[in-house]
Design goal:
This protein is an all-alpha fold. It has one domain (about 5-120). It has 5 helices and no strands. It is flat, with a radius of gyration of 17 Å.
């Protein structure tokens, strides 16, 4: 059987990979689209919160909280996509690529934060 405390300790440090997302700011200097992918590393910051949740025994409450967090993300996704749609309709010269990457990171981090808050 795996040592749960040891696994949680390592998961906490996986969140440090989020600092690789700072490399994404090179996009504003080079305007190379491939630099935007580095912003997605910010989603690793969610592991700082998820490592604090005890999921050694998944009970009905955890499953219900997970379902509520997924429902929240669905509503948030619709909201963010509608904002991006309105931006693209009203501002013609706006480059939406950074906003799309930010939307992805916001959705992943929001799921981690919502699940953490529901479990507390």
């Amino acid at each position: 059987m795996k040592d749960v405390k040891k696994t949680r300790r390592y998961n906490k440090w996986i969140g440090c990979l989020g600092f690789l997302g700072l490399r994404g700011f090179w996009y504003f200097k080079t305007h190379d689209v491939s630099d935007l992918y580095y912003f997605m590393y910010f989603a690793w910051f969610g592991h700082f919160l998820l490592s604090k949740i005890n999921v050694s025994i998944t009970d009905e409450m955890y499953l219900e909280n997970e379902k509520n967090a997924r429902a929240f993300i669905g509503i948030l996704a619709i909201f963010l996509i509608s904002i991006l749609t309105m931006l693209s309709m009203f501002v013609r010269d706006l480059d939406l690529k950074p906003f799309i990457v930010a939307t992805f990171v916001i959705l992943v981090l929001s799921y981690s934060i919502k699940l953490y808050l529901l479990e507390k």
